[in-house]
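Q: Second attempt. The first request was missing the SMILES, so the protein and zinc ion are both included now.
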Amino acid sequence: MSDPTDLPTIAQAARHATTLGIMVLPSHYPIPLTAPDEHGRRLACSCGQPGCPAPARHPIQGLTVNHATVNPDRVTAWWADRPNANLATPAGRSLDILELACASPAQQVTDWLDTQGIEPGPIIAAAPNRLHLLVRGSQPTTPRAAPLRDGRLVRVAADTLVLLPPSRRIDGHPVAWQRPFATRAAPLPDGERVWEALVHLPQPTSSTTGTTPSGSTVPPSCPPTSHERRHPRPAGRDRHHHPGHPRSARAGTQARPNT
Ligand SMILES: [Zn+2]
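A: Got both inputs this time. The predicted holo structure:
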């Protein structure tokens, strides 16, 4: 079960993530509405809160990011109770996440990293025109954002909840792997090196539209990124560990202060 794209259920994906050393947490998730709401949406957040500020992307009741864990027994129990829960990880706990909002298809991004001598790591299609690159944390760790020639690059702020595949967004888009974890032991690329490379990412081949590997076109403009929170990142980086590293086992079962 080395290819997470083959995992049929969120529960299995959650357990697989723990074997990679990724601390996970069950998140609220989209539920269908009997009729479209006033905005024409057919999905709502399972929390039931009108105007939920982070629909389908916040911990299910009674949990916080401090409950994120790699404990497989706890993860199994969570999804046994809520089998439809989205799968999330708090940024900066097990790994850092760079959010790339631009029209460049994932293939162009990985090709660019290759030309810069960087072995690309896992990449998630988080939303249309938005990629999440999973990287190894490095100093300095303050949140960052940079405009690109054709988009924007953001280091997701610590403890921001990020959805992992096969979660589903409130707009109906699936969160999917563009490039899954290669192997359990494969190291993640260094976040600082990936950042420096992506800051110089060339524009898509076409100046007006980009073409995804599947052939669909994407618009030229890039929306603001969703994780541009400016919270100071905790100073202690000792909680960073490499996914797949044995020392991470069960470490997440303890509450961790956020500040
Ligand atoms: Zn909600």
